[in-house]
């Protein structure tokens, strides 16, 4: 591997370098499981590292869950848009789930209160 990002954690640096060298561009995306296996990590730990590489080290790493699914080093504006749209889609789904959970809890709370009042 030639490119070095000078990230203090050697595993994080190796992952960033590996993505840059071998998985640049969405057409070269690598699956989470394959990348985790390559670095002998669990997929959860890999996701944590990828998040840190993006948020702390500002490394442009994208992911996609449809065509050419996997993790890739962003190399163009169109790939940035694809990765960004993927995140926004996840945010919308989580927001919808949060709203439903809030409504479900309020409904449950009201039902429990009504049950308690009937016992009085």
List the keywords.
single chain; 120 residues; mainly alpha; Arc Repressor Mutant, subunit A; two-stranded antiparallel ribbon; 4 helices; 2 strands; elongated
Question: What's the layout of helices and strands?
Answer:
Layout: H1 10-22, H2 32-38, H3 43-55, E1 61-64, E2 70-73, H4 77-119
Q: What is the strand tally? A: 2
Q: Which geometry do the CA atoms define?
A: elongated
Helix fraction, binned, reads 55-70%
Low-confidence stretches: none
The count of domains is 1
Structural class: mainly alpha
The CATH topology is Arc Repressor Mutant, subunit A
**Average pLDDT:** 92
Pattern of helices and strands:
HHHEEH
- For the termini, the CA-CA separation is 73 Å
CATH class: Mainly Alpha
Rg on CA atoms, Å? 21 Å
Overall description:
- The protein is mainly alpha-helical.
- The protein has one domain (10-119): Arc Repressor Mutant, subunit A (Orthogonal Bundle), CATH 1.10.10.10.
- 63% of the residues lie in helices and 7% in strands.
- It is built from 4 helices and 2 strands.
- It has a two-stranded antiparallel ribbon.
- A hairpin with a 5-residue loop joins strand 1 (61-64) and strand 2.
- The longest helix has 43 residues, at 77-119.
- The radius of gyration is 21 Å and the shape is elongated.
- The mean pLDDT is 92.
């Amino acid at each position: 591997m030639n490119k070095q990002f000078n990230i203090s954690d050697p595993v994080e640096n190796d992952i960033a370098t590996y993505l840059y060298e071998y998985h640049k561009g969405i057409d070269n995306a690598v699956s989470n499981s394959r990348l985790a296996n390559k670095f002998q990590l669990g997929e959860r730990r890999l996701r944590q590292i990828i998040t840190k590489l993006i948020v702390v080290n500002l490394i442009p790493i994208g992911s996609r869950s449809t065509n050419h699914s996997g993790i890739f080093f962003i190399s163009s504006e169109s790939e940035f848009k694809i990765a960004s749209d993927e995140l926004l889609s996840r945010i919308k789904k989580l927001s919808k789930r949060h709203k439903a959970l809030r409504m479900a809890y309020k409904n449950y709370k009201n039902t429990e209160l009504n049950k308690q009042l009937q016992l009085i």
